[in-house]
Amino acid sequence: MLSRSILARPRLELSFKALNHETRRLASTKSLKDTIAEVIPSKQAHLKRLKEQHADTLIGDVKVANVLGGMRGLRAMLWDSSVLDPEEGIRFHGLSIPDCQRQLPAAPDGKEIIAESMLWLLLTGQVPTPDQTRGLSRELAERGDLPQHVEKLIDSLPATLHPMTQLGMGVAALNHDSSFQRAYEKGIKKSEYWTHTLDDCINLVARLPALAARIYRNVYKPGTPLPKIDKNLDLVGNYAKLLGHGDNHDLTEYLRLYIAIHGDHEGGNASAHTAHLVGSTLSDPYLSYAAALFALAGPLHGLANQEVLRWQLLMQKEVGDNITHDTIKDYLWKTLKSGQVVPGYGHGVLRSPDPRFIALQDFCESRPELLESPIIQLVKKTYEVAPAVLKEHGKTKNPYPNVDAASGCVLYHYGLTEFKYYTVIFGVSRALGCVTQLVWARALGLPIERPKSYSLDAIEQLAKSGSS
Ligand SMILES: CC(C)(COP(=O)(O)OP(=O)(O)OC[C@H]1O[C@@H](n2cnc3c(N)ncnc32)[C@H](O)[C@@H]1OP(=O)(O)O)[C@@H](O)C(=O)NCCC(=O)NCCS
């Protein structure tokens, strides 16, 4: 399939290489698949060099606190597409979110980053040209229809089943047509794993909008027709259309930005790590990403955007029209004193306001009608007082907002009010980073993951022998 597609077709274009905060103009005639193929040897050589020269070099300590603390802070994983700095936030192959906003091609009718240009950057380390981006959009649209058995499966599920459970089930069922699985059964060489993985990954990304929109339709708008995928639209343009919001240009642009910047957040977060772990067993991309989606469905991870909105609406109900810094402060303390977390605040790695939150805030700042929205004003006012309250509370290492503090409220304002659905949108997005890792793990021949575990007694013994 891939060989007949634009992914494998040479194109006469220029491309840019993003490297260590700089971009270099390169003459290129490469398709996505050829571009990845071109980058693979140097990455393989880099990995080999590291193994040969530094296999015994220490890059961190393993403390008992790391082992007992959810492996927090352990440098234990290779993830090439993005690196998260605690203060500065995420960079994708060296590019910050504002860099990406300046450099990555947008949709023909828009200004925001789109999923295709982000996916190209993540997979290749290079900034695609507008033509390459459009080519990938068309490729995704052409592959975007769901197989019938998946449609039937989703239609058979009760509308009361959480949309994330439905999404995970639908993605797992896509493995019926896995190119990797078929090729593996035939006995392909290890060096060919990545091409079949890429084929599955592109199919997976392509089909997510139709799958996610079908779930939305079944759960919230039963009986309404689902439009067909428009071959001339980008991935998220189609997703907005399938959700029934295609004529809302601002919401479409918001979804484009949201999905692009949520796409990858280095490898240690629960969904990304799960995709990598499951993929490391040579499970195909559909099964690997289905597993990741079930990690994303936890309230401490992706479900937080649903929780933020639920929490902010409860606050709005309780506080009524009397929204002041003091009333918000009281509500924050009430939440904390009842033993709950303040959703949308804190982070496992970040120690500053999340640049993704700032990008979404900037989106609001540029649109006067959003600034007047009561729910967005509430989010903004909460941000003005929450860090000080959380500092005073003294538990969280990061009292600042993460991306989820803002993401759901904008959707709510634009009329996508079904907040139990919000994590599904995150699920459409996070695929970008996870599939990138799956392709590269195969291209680099990364092994099955298998860290060592110890019992409480064994850890104590190790600690005592280490400290004596
Ligand atoms: C994201 C999160 C899970 C990170 O967890 P973490 O790495 O363990 O965070 P910390 O090391 O700062 O946690 C230290 C303590 O502060 C608490 N804490 C962290 N964030 C908090 C918050 N937003 N509100 C209240 N307490 C919080 C933790 O529950 C923990 O308490 P404990 O010692 O009683 O277990 C956590 O900040 C959280 O639960 N945030 C709210 C949910 C959320 O927004 N998730 C989306 C993340 S993108």
From TrEMBL:
Molecular function (Gene Ontology), one example: acyltransferase activity, acyl groups converted into alkyl on transfer
Keywords in alphabetical order: Mitochondrion, Transferase, Transit peptide
Principal place of residence: mitochondrion
Gene3D superfamilies: Citrate Synthase, domain 1, Cytochrome P450-Terp, domain 2
Entry-linked InterPro entries: Citrate_synth-like_lrg_a-sub, Citrate_synth-like_sm_a-sub, Citrate_synthase, Citrate_synthase_AS, Citrate_synthase_euk, Citrate_synthase_sf
Pfam family, one: Citrate_synt
Coiled coil feature spans: none
A GO biological-process term: citrate metabolic process
A cellular-component GO term for this protein: mitochondrial matrix
Active site: H301, H347, D404
Localization per Swiss-Prot or TrEMBL: Mitochondrion
Family statement: Belongs to the citrate synthase family.
Protein name (record): Citrate synthase
Organism encoding this protein: Marasmius oreades (fairy-ring Marasmius)
